[in-house]
Each structure stands twice: as structure tokens, then as C-alpha cells.
């Protein structure tokens, strides 16, 4: 009832809100961000009728970012509450940018709906101009709040990214070296030095410990890399102040677009050099005796040869990749955090360096200090002891807990455990056994039998996308998939696609004389949280195995050790279970 009197705005990513087809056709979110920033900062030509010979459609200014269109879309969004999809559709209809319209509406909004990454990262809040002072913060679906904070403030970089960063920064330095002052040149040299040292660490570990990963503290990495004496905070401030990442990426993009001669060919001549070459050749012709008249065919061959030499060499078509500079700076920023709050996982086999945040309290402290109140809501919050001790240690006296009954009555749900398959074999869906032919066969028969007797929709949750692919492939090869399709439509979740899949699943169930549908999904995927499979959408829900992490993984082991040391013995095991 209060929707018309509250100024509400929904914030989303460019992948959700951008309406420019040049940006939307890019597959990676990082590429979309870089292209959008590049097009948004382009200056319009003073005379649009005169097109530059170097201008391309991709380099033009984004037409969706016209100020009148963005302002009208902003006013519309503030006047009537719109969700992400409705905001994107309104932007496509009026030709305005929904992404920038939503951001310009933040300072006028009373209620802001935003994803985790924009709320939990202080840098993102500062960029959006969101102040939490005196605000009420409501975190929904907060059962994975601790993991979300750790994931958002972690960082990972691999060997390929480091190699590309070294090449791009070195080329940028060589091209503009004469323009840099001494201080800026020193900072760029320091970044190149750090990248080289990180690559050297990966190479040395691969030679000495080729099959084992290792954990280290941040100061141990800087000491082994011999860049402990470099002020990383000052270096990161330089990169932010000078927009270093955008400049390096822009220079790299220009170098990719510009034709470059090969090593055996001279560069394309300028007008002045062509005149000098012509005068020199005429002088040589005068000094030489007149040659015998060549045949017309020889002249044509020479002309074609000259034209081929003047053509730029063909470059192999390479798939565009996101800039490696931003992941590099994000990883360097994690090295400035408290050494006890995280660890560096060095994997020489995969060639990766990963920062793991173990203590999220420091990253969440500013939200606790600034907000007037924080509401943590979720359907599976208990036990809450770990959450309280990790995030709200400084304000235990302010904590108030409320628990409510489930919205579904007890007599409307029938939970039970299936320990034996249709053939009588014991079911074991641990990581080591779940991909065996025996377990796949038992699961296929179980799904077939359930689809024969359960009306409406059947939802099957599997531990991972990788295992879902194996199950789906086995269902196809064994013929079970065709048998199920005779009774129900079959839908399969793919990473990144959920909304359209859910709509198609619901439509298949609602069709007249329909036998229902089977939905194969993943625990932890988009279809497993925040959705209501009501009535015919979920007459049976099957969870295959328990989605426990691999207890032998170095990351999980380090996290459990940290919890035991901070919260007491047994805390790590409770976290795992």
C-alpha cells in the first residue's frame, strides 16, 4: 500500500540493465564493464557529419547515455517501484540507459534494493554515493552472509593474467615513457617488478613442489617475492588517482586495433618520407643507364608485390579477454589487509595465487558502526552462534533474535531419506562414489520411477554443475531420458541461466493434459535460493547427496583451523557440518 509514496530504486549490474547491443553481445561481465566505461567517456564529435577515418562503431559514444533520456528514465523509476526486469524493459523502450539511470536515482531514493556485492564492499558503496549512516540495512537470504563476505573480499590471479599484465604495462610504459615524470615512472616500474616477482614465485614453486599447494601469510609472500619494502597502499592510491587500469587497457585496445607491420616489412610511409623516397629513386634512375623495357606482365607483378608489402599483416583472430590489470590490483589490495585475517593459497599446478579471507569481521565492521540497525533475515539461519561471534562481537548487547514457524504446515510436507536404490543397492553419493556407473544407474532408475507416480513438477537438486552434466549424459546414453520425456518434459539448469528456464518449466506444467515436468538443478545455484516451488511446481523435491565441500581441500582446512583458534575447539567441525 505504500509503494506509491516511497521513492524506490533497484540497482543491478550492466549484464542485467545495459541496453546497448554492442555491450550486451559480449560474453564476459568484465568485458561489458570495460566497453561501457570506454563508450561512456567518449566525447562526441563537434561535426557529426564528418566521420573520422579511424572511427568505428565500437568506438563511438553510447547513444543510450544521453542526459535527457537518462534523467527521464530516472524520474520514472523513482515515481513507480520497478524491479530489475521492468527497469531494463523501460530503458529499452525509451532508448535510455537503465544502468546509469538507476545510479543517478540513488541520492533521491528512500529505499534502495541492491545485490550483496554493492552493499558489502565499501569501495562499491563509495562509487555509488551510498551512505549507511543512520540507515536501516536489511539483508535477505542471509544464511550465506559469511561466505558472501569472504568471497567478495577474496581475490585470485593466475599465470596467464600476470603474463598479460606484464606485457600490457611494459608496452604502456615504453610508449609514454617520455611523458611520465620521475615519480609516476617509479610507480609503474614497481608494478612491473611485483608482477615479475609473482611469476618467478610460481615458476620456482612449480620446479621445487610441482604437485603440492601451500598456504602462506601475506607478509610471507611479499618477503619471498622481495617486494616487502614497496608501499602497496601508496601504489594502489597512485593507480586509483591516475586511473591506471583504464589507461593501460585503453592503450592495449588501441594497439590491438592498429595495423602493425611485421619484422621483415618497413612501416607504412608518411607523405614526407614518400616524397623523399621518390626523389632518391629518381636520382638513382638518372645515374643508371636506361634499362631494357620490361614487359607489361613484369610491371604488373612488381606492382602487385608492392601492394602486398604495403598491406598490414593479418593478425590471428583472438577471443577478447577481460583486462588483467583490475584482477592484479585487486590481488595487491588484499595484501594490504591484516595478516591474521587471511591466507594466500599458492597452487603451482594451476598457476594461481588466491587470497582467502578467514575473518570477515573487519570487512563488515564499517556496516555495523554506520548503520542505525541491521536486520538479518533468512529461512535457514540456525544455528546463529557462528554468525554472531564472527560479525557482531562488538555489539553483543544490541542483538535481538526472533524465530518464527515455517509458512508451510507440518502436515503438508513429507520428508524422508532414501538409503537404498530401486535394485536394493545402498546409495552412497560421496564425492568418490557418486560418479560410479552403479550410483548413476540407481539415480536414473529412481528418477524414472518418481516421474511415473508423482504428478506435476519434480525438482532434483544435484551437488554441482559438473555432476549434473554427468547425470544428464548418463540419462541420455541409457535411454532413461526418453522414457521420462514420454511422461514429463525435462529441463536442465545451466550456469548463468535461470529466469527463462523457470518460466518454461512453469508453462510446461500448466499445459492442459500435461504430465508435468522434471527440473534438474544445482544446490547453491540460482534456482535453489529465493524461489518458491509452490503447488504443482514442486510436488516432489529430490536432493541427491549432501553438498559438503571436500574436507581435504587446503582452503577448507585452513578455515577450520582458524575457527578452532578463534572460537574454540570444535568450531571448525561445526562449520563444516
From TrEMBL:
<keyword id="KW-0408">Iron</keyword>
<dbReference type="GO" id="GO:0005524">
    <property type="term" value="F:ATP binding"/>
</dbReference>
<dbReference type="GO" id="GO:0005634">
    <property type="term" value="C:nucleus"/>
</dbReference>
<dbReference type="Pfam" id="PF06733">
    <property type="entry name" value="DEAD_2"/>
</dbReference>
<keyword id="KW-0067">ATP-binding</keyword>
<dbReference type="InterPro" id="IPR006554">
    <property type="entry name" value="Helicase-like_DEXD_c2"/>
</dbReference>
<feature type="domain" description="Helicase ATP-binding">
    <location>
        <begin position="1"/>
        <end position="209"/>
    </location>
</feature>
<keyword id="KW-0479">Metal-binding</keyword>
<dbReference type="GO" id="GO:0016818">
    <property type="term" value="F:hydrolase activity, acting on acid anhydrides, in phosphorus-containing anhydrides"/>
</dbReference>
<protein>
    <submittedName>
        <fullName>EG:33C11.2</fullName>
    </submittedName>
</protein>
<dbReference type="InterPro" id="IPR006555">
    <property type="entry name" value="ATP-dep_Helicase_C"/>
</dbReference>
<keyword id="KW-0347">Helicase</keyword>
<dbReference type="InterPro" id="IPR010614">
    <property type="entry name" value="RAD3-like_helicase_DEAD"/>
</dbReference>
<dbReference type="Pfam" id="PF13307">
    <property type="entry name" value="Helicase_C_2"/>
</dbReference>
<keyword id="KW-0413">Isomerase</keyword>
<keyword id="KW-0411">Iron-sulfur</keyword>
<dbReference type="GO" id="GO:0051536">
    <property type="term" value="F:iron-sulfur cluster binding"/>
</dbReference>
<dbReference type="GO" id="GO:0034085">
    <property type="term" value="P:establishment of sister chromatid cohesion"/>
</dbReference>
<keyword id="KW-0547">Nucleotide-binding</keyword>
<feature type="region of interest" description="Disordered">
    <location>
        <begin position="249"/>
        <end position="270"/>
    </location>
</feature>
<comment type="similarity">
    <text>Belongs to the DEAD box helicase family. DEAH subfamily. DDX11/CHL1 sub-subfamily.</text>
</comment>
<dbReference type="InterPro" id="IPR045028">
    <property type="entry name" value="DinG/Rad3-like"/>
</dbReference>
<dbReference type="GO" id="GO:0003677">
    <property type="term" value="F:DNA binding"/>
</dbReference>
<feature type="compositionally biased region" description="Basic and acidic residues">
    <location>
        <begin position="250"/>
        <end position="261"/>
    </location>
</feature>
<dbReference type="GO" id="GO:0003678">
    <property type="term" value="F:DNA helicase activity"/>
</dbReference>
<dbReference type="GO" id="GO:0046872">
    <property type="term" value="F:metal ion binding"/>
</dbReference>
<dbReference type="InterPro" id="IPR027417">
    <property type="entry name" value="P-loop_NTPase"/>
</dbReference>
<feature type="region of interest" description="Disordered">
    <location>
        <begin position="302"/>
        <end position="322"/>
    </location>
</feature>
<feature type="region of interest" description="Disordered">
    <location>
        <begin position="39"/>
        <end position="58"/>
    </location>
</feature>
<feature type="compositionally biased region" description="Basic residues">
    <location>
        <begin position="42"/>
        <end position="53"/>
    </location>
</feature>
<keyword id="KW-0378">Hydrolase</keyword>
<dbReference type="InterPro" id="IPR014013">
    <property type="entry name" value="Helic_SF1/SF2_ATP-bd_DinG/Rad3"/>
</dbReference>
<dbReference type="GO" id="GO:0006139">
    <property type="term" value="P:nucleobase-containing compound metabolic process"/>
</dbReference>
Amino acid at each position: 500500500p505504500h509503494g506509491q509514496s516511497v521513492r524506490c530504486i533497484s540497482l543491478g549490474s550492466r549484464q542485467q540493465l545495459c541496453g546497448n547491443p554492442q555491450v550486451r553481445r559480449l560474453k564476459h561481465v568484465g568485458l561489458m564493464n570495460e566497453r561501457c566505461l570506454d563508450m561512456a567517456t567518449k566525447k562526441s564529435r563537434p561535426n557529426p557529419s564528418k566521420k573520422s577515418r579511424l572511427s568505428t562503431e565500437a568506438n563511438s559514444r553510447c547513444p543510450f547515455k544521453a542526459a535527457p533520456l537518462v534523467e527521464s528514465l530516472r524520474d520514472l523509476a523513482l515515481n513507480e517501484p520497478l524491479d530489475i526486469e521492468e527497469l531494463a524493459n523501460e530503458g529499452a523502450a525509451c532508448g535510455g540507459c537503465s544502468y546509469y539511470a538507476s545510479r543517478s536515482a540513488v541520492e533521491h531514493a528512500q529505499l534502495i534494493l541492491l545485490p550483496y556485492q554493492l552493499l558489502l564492499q565499501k569501495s562499491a558503496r563509495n562509487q555509488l554515493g551510498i551512505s549507511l549512516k543512520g540507515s536501516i540495512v536489511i539483508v535477505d537470504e542471509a544464511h550465506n552472509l559469511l561466505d558472501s563476505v569472504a568471497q567478495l573480499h577474496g581475490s585470485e590471479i593466475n599465470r596467464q593474467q600476470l603474463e598479460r599484465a606484464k606485457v600490457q604495462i611494459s608496452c604502456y610504459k615504453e610508449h609514454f615513457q617520455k611523458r611520465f615524470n620521475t615519480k609516476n615512472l617509479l610507480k609503474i616500474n614497481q608494478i612491473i617488478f611485483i608482477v615479475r616477482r609473482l611469476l618467478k614465485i610460481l615458476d620456482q614453486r612449480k620446479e621445487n613442489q610441482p604437485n603440492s599447494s601451500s598456504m602462506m601469510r601475506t607478509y610471507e609472500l611479499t618477503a619471498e617475492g622481495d617486494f616487502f619494502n614497496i608501499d602497496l597502499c601508496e601504489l594502489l592510491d597512485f593507480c586509483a588517482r591516475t586511473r591506471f587500469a583504464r589507461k593501460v587497457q585503453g592503450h592495449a585496445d588501441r594497439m590491438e586495433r592498429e595495423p602493425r607491420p611485421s619484422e621483415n616489412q618497413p612501416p607504412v610511409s608518411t607523405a614526407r618520407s614518400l616524397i623523399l623516397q621518390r626523389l632518391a629513386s629518381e636520382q638513382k634512375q638518372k645515374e643508371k643507364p636506361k634499362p631494357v623495357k620490361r614487359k607489361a606482365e613484369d610491371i604488373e607483378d612488381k606492382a602487385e608485390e608492392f601492394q602486398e608489402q604495403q598491406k598490414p599483416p593479418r593478425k590471428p583472430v583472438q577471443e577478447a579477454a577481460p583486462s588483467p590489470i583490475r584482477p592484479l590490483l585487486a590481488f595487491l589490495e588484499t595484501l594490504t589487509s591484516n595478516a591474521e585475517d587471511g591466507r594466500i593459497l599458492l597452487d603451482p599446478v594451476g598457476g594461481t595465487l588466491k587470497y582467502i579471507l578467514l575473518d570477515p569481521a573487519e570487512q563488515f565492521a564499517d556496516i555495523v558502526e554506520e548503520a542505525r540497525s541491521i536486520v538479518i533475515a533468512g529461512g535457514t539461519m540456525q544455528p546463529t552462534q557462528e554468525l554472531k561471534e564472527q560479525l557482531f562481537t562488538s555489539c553483543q548487547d544490541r542483538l535481538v533474535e526472533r524465530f518464527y514457524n515455517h509458512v508451510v504446515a507440518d502436515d503438508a510436507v513429507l520428508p524422508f531419506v532414501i538409503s537404498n536404490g530401486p535394485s536394493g543397492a545402498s546409495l552412497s553419493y560421496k564425492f568418490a562414489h557418486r560418479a560410479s556407473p552403479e550410483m548413476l544407474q540407481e539415480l536414473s532408475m529412481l528418477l524414472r520411477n518418481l516421474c511415473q507416480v508423482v504428478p506435476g513438477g519434480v525438482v532434483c537438486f544435484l551437488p554441482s554443475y559438473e555432476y549434473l552434466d554427468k547425470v544428464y549424459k548418463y540419462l541420455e546414453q541409457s535411454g532413461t531420458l526418453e522414457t521420462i520425456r514420454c511422461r514429463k518434459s525435462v529441463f536442465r539448469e545451466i550456469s548463468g541461466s535461470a529466469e527463462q528456464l523457470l518460466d518454461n518449466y512453469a508453462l510446461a506444467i500448466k499445459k492442459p493434459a500435461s504430465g508435468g515436468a522434471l527440473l534438474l538443478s544445482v544446490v547453491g545455484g540460482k534456482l535453489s535460493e529465493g524461489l518458491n516451488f509452490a503447488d504443482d511446481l514442486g510436488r516432489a523435491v529430490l536432493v541427491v547427496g549432501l553438498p559438503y565441500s571436500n574436507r581435504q581441500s587446503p582452503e577448507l582446512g585452513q578455515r577450520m583451523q582458524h575457527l578452532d583458534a578463534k572460537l574454540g575447539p570444535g568450531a571448525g567441525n561445526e562449520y563444516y557440518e
